[in-house]
């Protein structure tokens, strides 16, 4: 599953990766997360600090991946997923560092990430009367839940990104969206809507991760 994130970052941002220092810094931050140096220091013990740091750095991405696949995992499996996401982000950052220096040699690292056979391509329910949840409705639920938890500016910023996803996905059930769909949307944002790769990374993918991750949480499932 981490390979889907590698593809999104390493491919969508390849044409305009920005300065190489950005991605070198990302690798350093990834290393700090593994070492437990990004948490606020509230956790007790080295292992707890490492877990908190990994969650701070990669938890949103893990939530988005699990939400797209409709998966709920135990803590051990989540820890493993966070570790593989960290490795994938290292590989993506290394590639984008090369691209930023005009090195577009073959991407050997991509061979490490075979295509993921998504579970989310299946029908969300065998019941023909099952509720269909479109992206617009999911965002409205997320915004209502977070009205007193997130800054108004954050919700407004996310709404702009999600409105584009709504137009792209139309009335498809969010449980049928795959990583390929989000990748295609990111390309559409870049090529058809003229959004910079930096904005896609900083705003659009973060917004989608937050909303889809919430959908898979206890609060999102209950709608409260």
Automatic annotation (TrEMBL):
The organism's taxonomic lineage, starting at the top: Bacteria, Pseudomonadati, Pseudomonadota, Alphaproteobacteria, Hyphomicrobiales
Core-binding (CB) domain sequence ranges: 133-216
Name recorded for this polypeptide: Core-binding (CB) domain-containing protein
Alphabetized UniProt keyword annotations: DNA integration, DNA-binding
The keyword DNA-binding is annotated on this UniProt entry: yes
Transmembrane segments: none
Domain of life: Bacteria
């Amino acid at each position: 599953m981490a390979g889907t994130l590698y593809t999104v970052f390493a491919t969508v941002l390849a044409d305009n990766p920005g300065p190489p220092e950005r991605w070198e810094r990302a690798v350093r931050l990834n290393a700090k997360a593994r070492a437990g140096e990004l948490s606020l220091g509230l956790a007790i013990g080295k292992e707890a600090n490492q877990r908190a740091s990994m969650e701070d750095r990669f938890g949103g991405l893990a939530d988005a991946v699990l939400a797209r696949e409709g998966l709920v995992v135990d803590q051990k499996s989540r820890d493993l997923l966070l570790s593989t996401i960290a490795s994938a982000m290292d590989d993506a950052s290394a590639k984008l560092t090369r691209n930023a220096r005009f090195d577009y040699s073959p991407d050997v690292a991509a061979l490490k990430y075979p295509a993921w056979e998504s579970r989310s391509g299946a029908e969300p329910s065998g019941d023909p009367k099952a509720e269909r949840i479109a992206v617009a409705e999911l965002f409205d639920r997320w915004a209502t839940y977070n009205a007193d938890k997130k800054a108004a500016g954050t919700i407004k910023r996310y709404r702009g990104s999600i409105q584009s996803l709504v137009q792209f996905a139309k009335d498809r059930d969010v449980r049928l969206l795959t990583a390929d769909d989000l990748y295609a949307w990111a390309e559409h944002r870049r090529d058809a809507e003229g959004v910079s790769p930096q904005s896609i990374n900083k705003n659009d993918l973060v917004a989608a991760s937050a909303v889809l991750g919430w959908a898979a949480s206890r609060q999102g499932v209950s709608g409260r």
